[in-house]
Amino acid sequence: MIAIEPSQVLVVSKNELINQTINTAFMKETDFKLLDSSLASEGILNAIHELSPDIVLLDFEYVPSEQIFDLVDEIAMQYPKTAVVAILSEETLRFSQQVIMAGARAFMLHPFSQLQLLTALRRVRELQLRSAGATTFPESLVSAKTSNKNFVVFSPKGGVGCTTVATNLAIALYQVIGEEVLLVDGKHLFGDIAVVMNLRTANSISDLIPHAGSMDESLIRQVVARHVSGIQILPSPSSIAMAQGIRPDDLYNVVLGLQSVYPNIVVDGGNYLSEAAVTYMDAASRILLVLTPEMSALRAARQFLDISRSLSYPREKILLVVNKVGRKSDVSVADIEKVLRTKVFVSIPVDEEVAQNSINEGVPVILKKPGHNISKTFKKFAKDLLELVPAPNLVKTPIEPISEVLSKSSRLG
């Protein structure tokens, strides 16, 4: 493992409450070191030149509003290794997009808690280390050829069908491409992939975490379980204690290991923007943002798209998936595209009875009713994804849908 030096942090603020919160948060921390901020009074650029901070916490109200964006842009241009984290108030929150576009790595809304501060700074530091190639990956994984077909299914709102989308998409990919597909339950707390797929196994992703720095293919294949549909499944931890003990850096190394073995990976990222979910998204080639055609889901999707900028995700990395389409009260797909300013990648038709029966029986719709419109949509969904993220020299050997008799055996695991 490579030793990581504490990140040098320069705070530029005259707000006593902000400075007190930051000072208190750093008292017991060894991974961050506060720099002397008195030099900032003589000029922020001069202070950055003299101190070479890794992170600058810049209070938006410290600098006149007409100068702040030029200042952030100047820092980004002159000191690309220094990450700017803007501190905004409720009154200045409307400038969040502009400050990110100017070059800030992230923004924080004041007042914030010590935990929120440290979480944000660790996220920024993690991005810096990855950009610099300094993340502590095992040598076996660094040299491995990893796949670029890694999809995270996520929604900021619960109840929109992320698990249904993830399970059916994984099987559709397997049927279309004829290659191994791994389905990962990324909801470490309260994950239900194993239940929905009626898979009985004591193994989970927590079995790989202790070996994050020394994984090999044989170990991975011992932990991953094969489903009757033909896909491979890596369930979530069986206990809360195991789930809470998973650190983002270990998880990222595990994901790299999985990518080195499996050419196609689908992650059920759930509906909570946790460190684990963000880690899965960092490693993904595409984020499949799921929403239903209703105002609450539309609002949540718009908020996530705003947040994705501070996570440094390019807009083309996120694909819109509208689930449960076809009810009279639905917001139209055209209106969704207009509000989110993004083209919908796929619209999945609604059939509440079929979907609910599928979940209760533990047989995904694409297996239970391969001729249903939902199943046909997932097949096209898979093909469109593969065209969007092609693999070199890939020879597709489509797999025939599994028989209804065999699909029902999934209730036995």
Describe the fold and architecture.
- This protein is an alpha/beta fold.
- It has two domains: 126 residues, Response regulator (Rossmann fold); 272 residues, P-loop containing nucleotide triphosphate hydrolases (Rossmann fold, 3-Layer(aba) Sandwich), CATH 3.40.50.
- The chain has 18 helices and 13 strands.
- The strands form two sheets. An eight-stranded mixed sheet has the order 8-9-7-10-6-11-12-13, sandwiched between helices. Strands 2-1-3-4-5 form a five-stranded parallel sheet, with helices on both faces.
- Strand 8 and strand 9 form a beta hairpin.
- The radius of gyration is 23 Å and the shape is globular.
- The C terminus is likely disordered.
Concise synopsis of the structure shown:
43% of the residues lie in helices and 16% in strands.
Main attributes of the structure:
alpha/beta; Rossmann fold; 2 domains; 18 helices; 8-stranded mixed beta sheet; 5-stranded parallel beta sheet; single chain; 413 residues
Secondary structure layout:
Elements: E1 7-12, H1 16-26, E2 32-34, H2 44-51, E3 55-59, H3 65-78, E4 83-88, H4 96-102, E5 106-109, H5 114-132, H6 139-142, E6 149-154, H7 162-177, E7 181-185, H8 193-196, H9 217-223, E8 225-226, E9 232-234, H10 240-244, H11 248-261, E10 264-270, H12 275-283, E11 286-291, H13 295-310, E12 318-325, H14 333-340, E13 344-349, H15 352-361, H16 365-368, H17 373-388, H18 404-408
Parallel strand pairs: 1-2, 1-3, 3-4, 4-5, 6-10, 6-11, 7-9, 7-10, 11-12, 12-13
Antiparallel strand pairs: 8-9
Helix pairs in contact: 1-5, 7-17, 11-12
